[in-house]
Design goal:
The chain is elongated, with a radius of gyration of 29 Å. With 460 residues, it is of the alpha/beta class. Strands 2-3-4-1-5 form a five-stranded parallel beta sheet. Among the domains are: 136 residues, Rossmann fold (3-Layer(aba) Sandwich); 88 residues, Zinc Finger, Delta Prime, domain 3 (Up-down Bundle), CATH 1.20.272.10; 76 residues, post-AAA+ oligomerization domain-like.
């Protein structure tokens, strides 16, 4: 069979059964999965010499490794990779279960087989359990005998706080390792390696600096997403190359086109990630509470990260509701906090409450308009000197420069609004915030008009 531009050779190592065979059809993120601890990018705080993970992987000398490791961190930070590296040790067998599909029966079957493999063949089973936070208490209890007696080396992964999602007996028998999102340098190094490595794109493409920067920025510290986006961008570039010889240059245009393609790979139900979140936001903005709840339900069922949903709700509490209902932001932040505190599936209720609040609230975009106009003026160079009477007058010598001279303390005057200028002279009459006539802004609009009239008496 003829290999295409981005095919990689098969991984025919002796440990192929342990780590999963990576052939030409494997995604780039799978082909580039590190084989040793030293190849892992980032997470150096957890992979220092002598650390439990290095000892468990057999790369450092030390006492017997832990019977269980719980890896807690955002998607794409190396949880699955670390499990595969641990499994590459000699006389080890890799078994992977997902808490989404596995039940108690599956867990017990793995434990029984692991005990036989240990006693009859001297093989240690590394059990990688993804999304352990989705396991019920009964399912987690089924893990205890194997962990307690070391029939298996359990490597459990979770994106939720284990203190709330993992039972105490399992936590007490485990080492908890917290993983962090990769920084820009880590992601950049990962992309550079994937471009040249024989398991990756084999030097058949070049990655321009602006395209590289764009990929680093869009992945949000997620290594898997970065590699998936790179692979999609390479495919776009290859499709436009018309069979040109030599390395194909990946440009920022290619990475922009690949963004949607990359995001779709993470959509478990086939929904178009960006279309759904766009429809969700626009339904809230349009006050269609039923449509907003529908799209919220679709995202939840598709396995979307609830923290992503919560962040979008917080943004739009200020962007689309703002001061028309100042309590909307409080509800949104409370829902985001609830997601962190209790996790799914219970947090779906908190998210729904915030969505209902925002969708049914009076709408105003005056907040986002105000700050964007103020930023535009600053970028245009409209940033004059701070008036002397409102400058800091507390440090020695400030009075000699006239700082604070003539300042009127607002609480000493009627209505606690003093007739004085606060903005630089060039912007003394600039009005950024323009309240609408909806919701709480109706009364605020009248009050702000009175305040501005008082302030402008300072002009004489």
């Amino acid at each position: 069979m003829t290999q295409s531009l981005f095919d990689a050779p098969d991984d025919d190592g002796a440990d192929g059964a342990a780590t999963g065979r990576r052939g030409p059809a494997s995604p780039l993120a799978v082909r580039m999965r590190p084989r040793t601890v030293d190849e892992i990018v980032g997470q150096q705080h957890a992979l220092k010499p002598g650390s439990p993970l290095r000892v468990l992987a057999g790369e450092d000398a030390g006492p017997a490794g832990p019977s269980s490791v719980i890896l807690w961190g955002p998607p794409g930070t190396g949880k699955t990779t670390i499990a595969h590296v641990i499994a590459r040790g000699s006389s080890r067998k890799f078994v992977e279960l997902s808490a989404v599909t596995a039940g108690v029966k599956d867990v017990r079957a793995v434990m029984d087989q692991a005990l036989n493999d240990r006693d009859l063949r001297g093989v240690t089973t590394v059990l990688f359990l993804d999304e352990i936070h989705r396991f019920t208490k009964a399912q987690q209890d089924a893990l205890l005998p194997g962990v307690e007696n070391r029939w298996v080396v359990l490597v459990a992964a979770t994106t939720e706080n284990p203190s709330f999602s993992v039972i105490s007996p399992l936590l007490s028998r485990s080492i908890l390792v917290t993983l962090h999102s990769l920084d820009a340098a880590d992601i950049g190094s990962l992309l550079d390696r994937a471009v040249t490595d024989e398991r990756g794109l084999q030097g058949k493409v070049t990655l321009g600096e602006t395209a590289r920067t764009h990929l680093v920025e869009l992945c949000g510290g997620d290594a898997r997403r970065a590699l998936t986006a790179l692979e999609a961008a390479a495919a776009v570039a290859y499709g436009e190359s018309d069979g040109a010889e030599g390395p194909i240059d990946i440009t920022e245009k290619h990475t922009e086109e690949a963004l949607d393609r990359a995001a779709l790979r993470y959509d478990r139900q086939g929904d178009q990630h960006y279309d759904i979140i766009s429809a969700f936001i626009k339904s809230i903005r349009g006050s269609d509470v039923d449509a907003a709840l529908h799209y919220l339900a679709r995202m939840i069922e598709a396995g979307e990260d609830p923290r992503f949903i919560a962040r979008r709700i917080v943004v739009h509490a200020s962007e689309d509701v703002g001061m028309a209902d100042p309590t909307a932001l409080q509800s949104a932040v409370a829902a985001a906090h609830a997601v962190q505190l209790i996790g799914m599936p219970e947090a779906r209720i908190n998210l729904a409450q915030a969505v209902i609040h925002l969708a049914t609230a009076p709408k105003s975009n005056a907040v986002v308009t105000a700050i964007d106009q103020a930023i535009a003026d600053v970028r245009a160079g409209k940033a004059g000197a701070v008036p002397a009477h409102v400058r800091d007058a507390h440090y020695p010598g400030a009075a000699e420069h006239g700082h604070g001279k003539g300042y009127i303390y607002p609480h000493d005057v009627e209505n606690a609004v003093a007739a004085q200028q606060y903005a630089p002279a060039e912007l003394a009459h600039r009005e950024y915030y323009r309240p609408t006539q909806y919701g709480a802004e109706r009364g605020l609009r009248q009050r702000l008009g009175i305040i501005r009239r008082i302030l402008r008496r300072a002009d004489g």
